[in-house]
User: What shape does this take?
Amino acid sequence: MLVRPADPEDIPGLAHVHVQGWRETYRGLFPDQLLDDPEFEPRRRRFWTAVLTDPRYAEHRAAVAEHDGQIVGLALANPAGEELGIPQLYALYLLAAHQGSGAGARLLDAVIDPDDEAVLWVADPNPRAQAFYRRNRFVADGAEKVEDGVREIRMHRPAA
Assistant: This one.
């Protein structure tokens, strides 16, 4: 498994993994009409195009995991953060067939230094993701929100 910085050539693969990751992770939490919308992947392509080409996102870090030349995972973070002024993880998805391979931790480390304090929001319930983040020193800090009918909890990792 190769983990490397994302580049604009990766946009189609990033969009596909982002959509498939949502479908595998959030079926039953998000409405099927959102997950199955034929415009979902084109919207993700526009999102990743902006992230990888728009100067407004220049400080963001994006990484991909490749297996046999195919993108199977992604991560996105802002090292400056927005919420607490510390690095914030926005997305980390690994296709189900590759979960448990160690690629998730490598993706996380590729976008946020493992010794840095960091924050993220994770859907609740999402026990597998929450367990993964706990293994990577994140703990729920009591903050929660509901967006689009989905409850999310904030998890925080102290500096090493």
Q: What stands out?
A: The chain has a mean pLDDT of 96. The longest strand covers residues 70-78. Helices lie at 11-26, 32-35, 40-53, 103-111, 127-135.
